[in-house]
Amino acid sequence: MRARYGVPLGITAVGAAGLAYSIGFEARSFRLRRVTVPMLPRGARPLRVLQISDIHMVSGQRKKRAWIQSLAGLRPDFVVNTGDNLSDPEGVPEVLDALGPLMEFPGVYVFGSNDYYGPKLRNPARYLLEKAQGRHGLNGNPPAVGVVHNPWEDLRDAFDAAGWVGLSNTRGRLKLPGGFELAFTGLDDPHIKRDRYGLVEGGPETDADASIAVVHAPYLRTLDAFTADGYPLILAGHTHGGQLCIPFYGALVTNCDLDTDRVKGLSTHEAGGHRSYLHVSAGCGANRYTPVRFACPPEATLLTLTPRP
Q: Of 83, 195, 190, nearest to 139 (Cα)?
């Protein structure tokens, strides 16, 4: 009898141990990624940018709040928040508590689908099915119905009051100490078809010292548009780095039409005869119904922008 059932029982035990590790340890093992991007004009001083994404705050996540607060000790020149701050309609006060020290620095932000809508319980296997069928988000899917509406307006008002610049289908600027001026072009979340590139098309603003494009979900249509228009750097989140990865292989899905080779970290994108740097944050949270991470720890990124060679 033991020989007959030993293998299934062993597989079950390994699976249970992996699940316990991914929920109890790795999902709370916060990391800081550091990358260097040579995209500033020659002669400019380096700039330190903290990108934070996909917090997916749920009430009671004290360790996550404390870690995000501690990032203020990095003293970035500015902060870029690439969305999905919420995973709980009651989470706004805790998001603002976590981000409070960071809102003392200049910043810009875009929203993601989970800022607008609460997550729904779904079978994780559907991500693989949707990938096989070429369906992602609302691209080919029915509009979101029967979902919880999150109080995103409260987030927006608090960010705006702190001086952070909203970039949902619009442009904005930050003037840093020393007079260096950055122009930003942002889109609302392509994952739920809120992006309107026609409102911001035209490329970087030539009277700024440097330009950066910002979007929550790195769908190819947005990356193509930004790159073809000549933006040197695109910042995005959304993918969770694959969230559940296979060691020595990597991510299985990106939850959008971006390839898995660029699911997180710094890469490049080419379109229209131009090349842009693309940084995709793996994010520091997860959907409240799938609070797991495996071979993909939660993270924020400190990007050092340096002059072009």
A: 190
